[in-house]
Amino acid sequence: MEQQLRTESQHVSHELWSELRPPSPEAGAVVVWEGEPSTPAEVTAGRRQLKRAVLQGQTPAGADEDDVERLLLAFEELASNGLRHGGAPVRAAVTRTADGWLIDVTDAVADRVPTPAVDRDPAHGGLGLYLVARLGAAHGWWRQPDHKHVWARIRAGGAV
């Protein structure tokens, strides 16, 4: 997988992450988890809390264990990127939708857009945005005057 991501990173432009407004949750959508992680340990704790919430019934119809793992991985990648590359406060919310989940992470650095690593050895990191793009059904970022959103939709039922 790492080799495939590195190869793709060498051939994919920054357009992989386009400026797109996050989708508005539809009627009946439920916020599963939200918080303001300020350290990597808090992101990991948020992942555990999110997993508990999802396993206690916050899954859309047809969701399986693989869908939950994709959600958790995408959540951790986006939230940790917010800490590493954005500015405080970092806010993360996961909303259950009819067909999956919407992850929305905001940070206070509106002028620094998500930029996938190019020509970087996977051993040095930087492939999280490629990974989230492959895990999700849709993704993007949106700039506001005082913050930006980086978001991804994870579909249940094995759909990507």
Written description of the protein model:
- The chain has 160 residues and is α+β, with helices and mostly antiparallel strands.
- Helix content is 34%, strand content 21%.
- The protein is built from 4 helices and 5 strands.
- Strands 1-2-3-5-4 form a 5-stranded antiparallel beta sheet, with helices on one face.
- Strand 4 (138-143) and strand 5 (148-155) form a beta hairpin.
- The relative contact order is 0.24.
Offer a concise description of the structure.
With 160 residues, the protein is α+β, with helices and mostly antiparallel strands. Helix content is 34%, strand content 21%. A hairpin with a 4-residue loop joins strand 4 (138-143) and strand 5 (148-155).
Order of helices and strands: HEHHEEHEE
- The overall pLDDT average reads 84
The total of beta strands comes to 5
What is the distance, rounded to the nearest whole angstrom, between the alpha carbons of the first and last residues?
17 Å
Strand order of the largest sheet: 1-2-3-5-4
Class inferred from helices and paired strands: alpha+beta
Low-confidence stretches: 1-14
Write the layout of secondary structure elements.
Layout: H1 2-11, E1 30-35, H2 40-55, H3 65-85, E2 91-96, E3 100-107, H4 128-135, E4 138-143, E5 148-155
Antiparallel strand pairs: 1-2, 2-3, 3-5, 4-5
List descriptors.
160 residues; alpha+beta; five-stranded antiparallel β-sheet; 5 strands; globular; disordered N terminus
